[in-house]
Amino acid sequence: MNKIKYPWYDSPWLSSYVSAKSLIKQKYPDKYQQFIEAFEPLKTRRDFKVQKFDRVFEHSTLRKIKELIKNLQHEKFEKHEFFNFGRFVIHNHPFFNQLQVELKDFVSQAVGEQVEASYNFLSLYNNFGVCAVHMDAPLAKWTLDVCIEQSHPWPIYFSQAQPWPEDFSCNMQDWELSIKQDPANQFTAYSLQEGEAIIFSGSSQWHYRERIPKQAQQNYCHLVFFHFYPTGMRKVLDPKNWVDVFDIAELSMETKSLEDRLLENS
Fold it and tell me: What does the pLDDT look like over 211-263, one tens digit per residue?
C-alpha cells in the first residue's frame, strides 16, 4: 500500500487513513462505503467554534498543579520535543489522569457529544517555545487546553473547522506560510490568562503558535492538554485494528499502534 506523506507533525494517522481509503476504493469497492461511514463520528461539524472558559479548575486545584510542576524531577521530563517545540512534556501523569476523568462530562456538554478520555500531557514551554501549524490525529478530536502559569500571555491561532486535509498540496516552498495565508482558513488568535482554558477540535482546526515573544529573561508557558474522542470509537481509531474491523488482510501493513504514534507525534 502506497503511503501518503504530509509535511506537518502528527500526520501519520491521516496518512494511514488516506492510504487505506485508496486501497479499499480500488480493490474492495463493496466495502468502501462501510469504511467511510465508520469514521464519520470522528469528523467535526463545520459550525464548531473554539470555546473559551474563565475557569475550569478551582483555585485549590490550580495551586496543586503549580506545586506539582515545581516539584517534578527533571529526569522524568520527556525531552524529545525540546528542539522542535522548545518544551518539556510529561504524558498521562496520574494526577492529570484523574482530573481528565472528572472533566469528561464537562467536555461532553461543551462539544455536544459524549466523549471518552484519550491522553493528556503537561507542556512546559521555555524561551524557545514555538508550535508549527498542524492538525492533530482524531485521537485528539477534542482538546481542553488549560493555562497553568506563564511569563506573559502567548496567543494560539486557530482556523475554523475544516474537513480533513486529505488532498493537501502546496506550490510554495514554505508550506506553513501557505496554510497561514490561505483565506479559506481565517485564523483567529486566542490568548489565555492563568486558569483560563479553551476547547478546540485539533483534528479539524489548523492551529499554531509563533515563537514565544522575548519579553523577559525567562519566558515560559505551562499548559495542560486533555484530549478526548467520541464515545465508542477507540477500536476504529487504531490502524492496527482495521484488519479486523473491515476484514481486509492488506490493511495489516498499518503496523504502528495508536500508542506508538502517540509517542512519536504528540
Answer: 999 988 899 999 999 999 999 999 999 999 999 999 999 888 654 544 454 44
Spatial contact of 170 and 95, defined as CB atoms under 8 Å apart = no
The answer, yes or no, to whether residue 131 has pLDDT greater than 50, is yes
Q: State the Cα angle at 158 between 155 and 162, rounded to 5°.
A: 175
The answer to whether 120 and 230 are in contact (CB under 8 A) is: no
CATH T-level assignment (fold) for domain 48-233? Jelly Rolls (2.60.120)
For residue 44, what is its C-alpha cell?
467535526
And the C-alpha cell for 128? 524557545
93: nearest Cα among 158, 42, 157, 148: 148
Domains of the chain by residue range = 48-233
**82-115 tens-digit pLDDT:** 889 999 999 999 999 999 999 999 999 999 999 9
3-class secondary structure per residue, the chain: CCCCCCCCCCCHHHHHHHHHHHHHHHHCHHHHHHHHHHCHHHCCCCCCCCEEECCCCCHHHHHHHHHHHHHCCHHHCECCCHHHHCEEEEECCHHHHHHHHHHHHHHHHHHCCCEEEEEEEEEEECCCCCEEEECCCHHHCEEEEEEEEECCCCCEEECCCCCCCCCCCCCCCCHHHHHHHCCCCCCEEECCCCCCEEEECCCCCCEEECCCCCCCCCCCEEEEEEEEEECCCHHHHCHHHHHHHHCCHHHHHCCCCHHHHHHHHC
213's grid cell? 515573544
Give the pTM.
0.92
Q: What is the pLDDT of residue 263?
A: 47
Distance CA 211, CA 63 (A): 27
